[in-house]
Amino acid sequence: MTRKNVLLIVVDQWRADFVPHLLRARGQEPFLKTPNLDRLCAEGVTFANHVTACVPCGPARASLLTGLYLMNHRAVQNTVPLDQRHFNLGKALRAIGYDPALIGYTTTTPDPRSTAKQDPRFLVLGDLMDGFRSVGAFEPNMDGYFGWVAQNGFALPPNREDIWLPEGEDAVPGATERPARIPKELSDSSFFTERALTYLKGRAGRPFFLHLGYYRPHPPFVAPAPYHGMYRPQDMPAPIRADSPEAEGAQHPLIKYYVDAISRGSFFHGAEGSGATLDEAEIRQMRATYCGLISEIDDCLGQVFAYLDETGQWDDTLVVFTSDHGEQLGDHHLLGKIGFHDESFRIPLVIKDPQGAAGRRGAIEEAFTESVDVMPTILDWLGGEAPRACDGHSVMPFTQGIRPTDWRTELHYEYDFRDVHYSEPEKVLGLGMDESSLCVVQDENYKYVHFAALPPLFFDLRSDPNQFVNLAEDESYAALVRDYAQKALSWRLTHADRTLTHFRSSPRGLEERNPNATETGDQSWSAPSRVAAQ
């Protein structure tokens, strides 16, 4: 069998409405330029209704790489360990003969039962997920990147993250038109690209799987020259938000907490004050810088694509482009990836399948897809098999122009907002640790947000697409609120952990049922060919 290549590109904090191909499809003029991503979209399928299963980074990447919903993998926040029993894409690839190389990071904290409490991985935000082999790590502590910068002759300041401060000693921290102090040749995006090209050239044409991660457009929102000045603030879309932070926070206790708690310093090194008080000019400047960081990644991807072209590998490579989560960017008076808003959860997904139907090239697919679908999609293309516990489904049929008859009819995602080292919502909201969570069920018409111990939210997306009017207590919507609450409950019941639920003991010994069987009785049971460690 001919071995195939896979390039999985995972960027950080890139929201879906900053994909020019999607903007054009909706009749909007793009406000940023990404010619290399445009090429990928033109040769593949772009999924217009794609969400991450959860936020922030660690939980999102756990779902992306295990194919599990947050309610099943339970790495609920950055720094919370991932149970070692969970299968993941790296381990699955090894099982079919691939050496899964990873550039970037996964923000995975190890299972404390598998190591000692003195393990230095517990001193950092996260480390690399078991099963992958790092060929260009950013974690822990970004040592690999900063060492590369120093090795290339750049004198690091005592606080090495100051390279992301705006240029000039008189620079005022915050949204700025000034470039970063680090040149583009030594940016983290350039580092990841150099690592990718080094790895690919070392493969010398042999089949590969490469997880190529990029840190951007994650904050700090300061871009190296010339990307800092590539876009004009006045050309950026205006923020979508209530008239004031107070009006925004009045919608729900969780939003009020974040409006009150988010600081500028988490997004602009050295900045002070509340993130909710950014004025429109500052938000437009932040968005211009965000677009500059996106264009830098696009240029970097162009280098990788060009190498695959030159070596004749482009047409043998499945390319998957996605992000871990989105970014509020001032919408709803918020910054970061939090809560339940679309800006935090809607992300890009583009798949270039060299075996896909010619008529699907450049297609926009409106079906509802989720980050848990990425793992089974890649395994499907490589001839592997997703584990029974996987919550996602392969989207490969869509690249052939086929919509599965049983495809999901709603989007689902979750957020766990328990205390972590930089946030204390439980104390303010009067909640216990295991009460600090929400889940969302959303389709083209309605969006329902269920909280474990706070009031629900319900939005009519046809009349209120930006979700300002909560109808959960409106008697005329009571039946719909009930129906969507039942959808949420049914979703959780049908996706409860099922790792072993298709096995049984019997007088004939261990038997396995085909999970896709529709018949009843013993005819659907058989002796398992193997019992994988999944």
TrEMBL record:
Keywords: Hydrolase, Metal-binding. It holds the Pfam family Sulfatase. Transmembrane segments: none annotated. One of its GO terms (molecular function) is hydrolase activity. Residues 4-383 form the Sulfatase N-terminal domain. It comes from the Bacteria. Residues 515-527 have a biased composition (Polar residues). This is Phosphoric/sulfuric ester hydrolase PehA. It comes from Bosea vestrisii. The gene is pehA. Its EC number is 3.1.3.-, 3.1.4.-, 3.1.6.-. Residues 504-534 are annotated as: Disordered. SUPFAM superfamilies: Alkaline phosphatase-like. The keyword Repeat does not apply.
